[in-house]
Write a structure and sequence with these properties.
The protein is of the alpha/beta class. Helices cover 35% and strands 17% of the residues. Strand 2 and strand 3 form a beta hairpin. The structure holds S-adenosylmethionine (SAM). The site of S-adenosylmethionine has 22 residues, from loops.
Amino acid sequence: MPTGRADEDARPSEPFEAVCIGREPGLILPTDLGVAGAGVGTVHGPGLRSTPVKWTPQSPETKKPPEGRRSDVSKAVEAEMSAIVKTPAFQQSTRNPFLCYDSVSTCDKPQTMRSLLDAFRVKRSSKAEWVRDFFTTPLVDLAAEDSRYTGIWTPEPELGAEKVGISEQFLANAEIYHHRYSHANYLVNLLEKAFESAGSARQASPVVLDIGTGSGKNSLFPMLHLFPDARFVATDLSPDLLAILQHYAVAQSLSDQIACVCADAMKNYFMPASFDVATGIAILHHLLDPSLAIKAAFDALKDDGIAVFYEPFEGFGLITMAYERILEEASSHSEAIDPLAIDLMRAMVTDINARRGTDKSDVRFRYMDDKWLFTRTYVEDVAAKIGYRSTKVIAQSTAADAFRRHVERNLQTGRELGPDALPDWAWHHIDKIDNSFSAEMKSDLVVSGVIILQK
Ligand SMILES: C[S@@+](CC[C@H](N)C(=O)[O-])C[C@H]1O[C@@H](n2cnc3c(N)ncnc32)[C@H](O)[C@@H]1O
């Protein structure tokens, strides 16, 4: 839901409709609608007038209304707004409907405004009522816990449950995380390859269980690109990340297609044999016991359904071996390394060393976000015990410069650094790994890989 903040993600690609509370439609600003600077659409305002609007970043309408102009949410305006959102024309609108309003803090009836907004959010998000059929337990709206989470479902037993195993990175700092990590493009290609390799006929409109969706950027969006007519049950333990997705879904009129459900991936609340596909991008390595999520996906899938995960593997150890070597040699070279890269490499060495192996009983894992690096053997054994018919692990890249690419991504996502953060002599150590293995061996030595499980 736009709150006056310009947001690239909320930029409507199609004409939109908006209901404007407490402000003349003609004075509405593009930023009120979450439009970064330009847009076309219709704004409904007091008196049920509809105003066609078209903005460019320079157009006069984008200027701020005169100072001191404040909204006056009178009983009459309130009633009118409630009437507008109930009209069939608005309810049936499929064109990016927005609700916009004057600043809640400067409005003279903030509580009224908030409850109107909440009522509106519940109503629009309740379009995905179908999600109830996919759960064995009743689902409740998380608004019961906090109105910021309105429209996000949760299985009743999860209400008020402690969130074990995730840190503030995914909770209070969800916005920062959402903006920092986005790899949607290469994940579209990886997922596409995974579905091809599974050899299963691609259904036009599958029901997808996405496990650990976060804000959706890297898992749900690539899947939506590949399956535009799919329905998604987007699950995550973080209501804050799901709230970002939920706002986007409402803004893009996708809330009937995407149901956000706050739940622990290690618990199974799903209706057996009800999903066509299960996906999880970078989720299993966050779980104390990933086998529970792999089993829950198995039970939730229909016969012949497939589960696709993308996860880090112990091949990362080769990269941290090179990092250790680089760190040891750093003081003896005249070409210096960016201090942020030094910091990142040190952190990676500690992190990777802590995550090796399958014993996660130490209490520290409850407080670490990243807990695992997988091995092919672990994945194959777990999947076979659960009953999957086949398991494939595909290395993300077997290219001649696969390790160099991994390190480049690591520098970029870890500290927003470019390749020049490392001098040539340091890259030489990374290139040595690349030059030491054939493509065949690189496919065995997985650093990051896609796991494809066939039920
Ligand atoms: C690395 S993020 C990946 C998010 C998303 N799939 C993506 O690729 O952008 C890991 C996600 O796992 C979620 N998570 C961690 N532990 C979880 C648990 N026990 N149950 C469900 N989600 C969990 C986090 O909240 C976070 O959204």
